Amino acid sequence: MPAPQSPDRPGPDDTGDMPATILVDADACPVKDEIYRVAERHGAHVRVVSNDIFRVPVSERVKRVVVSDGFDAADDWIADNASSRTVVITADILLAERCLKEGAQVLAHNGKPFDAASIGGAVATRAIMADLRAGMDGIGGGPPPFSKADRSRFLQALDKVLTAMARKG
Q1: Which residues are paired to 62 by β-bridges?
Q2: What letter would DSSP give residue 3?
Q3: For the chain, what is the largest distance between any 2 Cα atoms, rounded to a whole number of angstroms?
Q4: What is the count of structural domains for the chain?
Q5: Angle CA 62–64–67, to nearest 5
Q6: Contact in structure between 41 and 160 (CB atoms under 8 Å)
Q7: What is the CATH number of the domain that holds 73?
Q8: pLDDT of the residue at 11
Q9: Which domain holds residue 59?
Q10: What's the whole-model pTM score?
């Protein structure tokens, strides 16, 4: 008799009837409220994953997942639960790469999709930037400030991904 499947990770034969699940790398995620709204509209489940407690809406579809404060514990939980029926929301390029290997759709907070065609370049750019920052003795920048255009782009991208997943069934 096969082992029961987790409600967050469908088995190979039952993906068609399961709603999509959005896995949120919650630390420093500026679009949690937007995720909840879009998920409600699409009937998707949301798992808000972090090492700390975040307030989440009271909903059968939204669950908080608090992991240990171990290095990469949240990333490990997300990657372990990623599948073809999940959308992962993260700015972490290495986590995005792991989740893509599991068949998940991955979006950055600004709506930029990570996919098989873009992830290699993103990983390489990340490594180059880390090397440059290491040689600058503390001088550095960071990403540009999060804007209204980023928020709008994210909403459109998440809606598009969930609509495509629903069509696939």
Answers
A1: 46
A2: P
A3: 58
A4: 1
A5: 150
A6: no
A7: 3.40.50
A8: 41
A9: 21-168
A10: 0.80
